[in-house]
Amino acid sequence: MTALGFNIWEGIFPDFAAAPAADAVLGGGEGAFEGEEWLGKMAARGEASLAALRSGGSIPTAALSREYPLAVVAGLTPVGDGPLRIVDFGGGLANSYAGVRAALVTGRALEFHCVENTSVCELGRRVFADVADLFFHDDLDEVPVRADIVHAGSALQYIEDWRGMLARLLRFGPRYLVLSDLPAGDIPTFASVQVYYQRRMRHWFWNLGEVLDVLKGLGCEVVFRSRYEGVYLGKPGPYPMDNFPPECRLGFSSNIVATYASSS
Fold first, then answer.
1. Shortest CA distance to 114 belongs to which of 82, 130, 90?
2. In sequence order, what DSSP letters do the residues of the chain get, joined into one string?
3. Which of 157, 140, 166, 232 is nearest to 201 (CA)?
4. Average pLDDT for residues 82-97, to the nearest whole number?
5. C-alpha distance from residue 209 to each of 187, 188, 214, 216 (Å)
6. Do 169 and 150 contact (CB within 8 A), yes or no?
7. pLDDT of residue 23
8. Phi, psi (5° rounding) for residue 149?
9. 193 close to 244: Cβ distance less than 8 angstroms
10. What's the rounded mean pLDDT across residues 14-28?
11. Known NCBIfam families for this protein (predicted)?
12. pLDDT band at 1 (very low <50, low <70, confident <90, very high)
């Protein structure tokens, strides 16, 4: 029973006919989906979604996601007879591998190449020692594949020459470039310092239009973009930047998926 004192679902029946209910399909005007409660909820939800769509900005708040788009892009990418090859730059301890592997249909071959620093790669090779389709590399230039997808999730902001890094990532000739949790939005471009325990790391924040112009100049066409809601200090929400002037507060970061003109 819920905290409100009732059950959301009740009973176990062999089929619809045996279940004692007047639902939206069988009950006509008595159905729950035509009642005042449901219609009121739908009106409120519709008004909220329309307001989110009209919220303005480079990416309206109607396009808000709590997940990286990599697994969906992977599932939709045709590869022919070979394995699906993904290069994940700054991928941590293969943080995106399990989600991609689990989402792909059974039997689909995968090569997942995670590019990270030496310490993370050494740990990854130990933890995933018996995983045959996952590879760790501490040098981007040593990744020995042409990729179907190149992904960078919450990584590009730590690279001083981020334009040059994008060009390097596109050397793999991917069909798709996926940038997840990219701290870009309707703000000016500036550098900051991220405090992580006792360490302080340089960190870019970008004007989204500037990033999109760079991608276009590199031969990419953006086909999907959304806002991304991460978890900060244990709570989901926008970037906690109250200590910055209003014009520099990012709000939500961005997910971007782009096709690459030189992939064929």
1. 90
2. --TTSS-SS----SSTTTS----TTTSGGGSGGGSHHHHHHHHHHHHHHHHHHTS-SSS-TTSEESS-SHHHHHHH---TTS-EEEEEET-TTTTTHHHHHHHSPTT--EEEEEE--HHHHHHHHHHTTT-TTEEEES-GGG--S--SEEEEES-GGG-TTHHHHHHHHGGG--SEEEEEEE-EESS--EEEEEEETTEEEEEEEEEHHHHHHHHHHTTEEEEEEEEE-EEETTEEES---TTS-GGG---SEEEEEEEETT--
3. 157
4. 95
5. 9, 10, 9, 10
6. yes
7. 54
8. -135, 135
9. no
10. 65
11. MTase_LIC12133
12. low
Q: Could you count the other beta carbons within 10 Å of the beta carbon of residue 176? A: 24
Q: What is the pLDDT of residue 163?
A: 98
What span, in angstroms and rounded, lies between the C-alpha atoms of 58 and 121? 36
Q: Which residues contact 179 (CB under 8 A, 6 or more apart)?
A: 151, 152, 153, 156, 254, 255, 256, 257, 258
What is the band of 164 on the pLDDT scale with cuts at 50, 70, 90?
very high
Q: Which residues are within 8 A (CB) of 226 and not within 5 positions of it... i.e. 6 or more apart? A: 59, 63, 64, 65, 69, 254, 255
Higher pLDDT, 44 or 226: 226
Chain mean pLDDT for the chain: 89
CB 228 within 8 A of CB 180: yes
- Tell me how far apart the alpha carbons of residues 47 and 131 are, in angstroms, rounded to a whole number: 48
